[in-house]
Amino acid sequence: MQETQNFWDWYIGLFSDIDNKVRLAAWAATVTSSSFLITLYNLLRNVFSKTKEQKRPEALEGRKLIARDFVALCRKIYPYINDNKYVFNSYSPNSPTNESPYETNLELWDHVKMDTIVPNNEVILAIIKENKNLIPGKYAALFDRLKNHIYAFRKHVEDSNIDYSNFQFPQEFESTIKETCFADSRNNRKLKRVVGWLSNRFNRYYFQSTWLFGSFVFDPNPKRDVDLLTILKAETDLDRVNKIVTKTEFWFKILFRKKLHVQVFTASETNAFREFLNKNDYKTELYG
User: For the domain with range 186-287, which CATH number is right: 3.20.20.140, 1.10.3720.10, 3.30.460.10, 3.40.50.10490?
Assistant: First the structure.
């Protein structure tokens, strides 16, 4: 302690010395010490900043994770669940929609799991962690099962010898997300406005039945494309219908700033229409 005080007294004394050389040396020592401390601070700050960035998965960059309520939470999760399902159905040898599982490219499936499903899962997990206080108690166990699946699936992708059969994706999680989003959308003002406008264009004079389906019925708020399915009445003038569809798609883009995709079935394609319609569990009818 005494040595510290002696050093401090000596240092202060340098500034009162009448010798300019000594005074300048003291100032130089002060400036050098200050510069060193500033440099050290910036260096440490950069190190900690990079460390923090490294802990944040690349898939999360630029994502807005915080939701205002449970419906908003489900809507943030929905695109990633939907994307994973599409990838699984397209590439997985275990997909129920894969008609030729033995022709599946397993190497390609391994790449898709690592490049798409695992990053999507990391985003889903981050969304859940940021909004865990919004999850109703009745869904707590379901969300925990999903988190266990995400962890086990990632480990399996990293090492195929790891068995995750006891931690399969809980199918009821997908249905919970979709049902929550769809139920809220049915009362959404923007969806009702779209339904009302389209109902006037696809009227009963030419069309038997018309339905909205796809991502828009789960979340009408973002600038999502709108998918519409319709079947014509018998002996309908196809040229006239094509003009109506083209004109409707044009004005829809102008008024709603969204693309409208219309799929038309003729009266002779009733069975195909019903089959397509039945594949979509969540849809909104313009009229019946």
Answer: 3.30.460.10
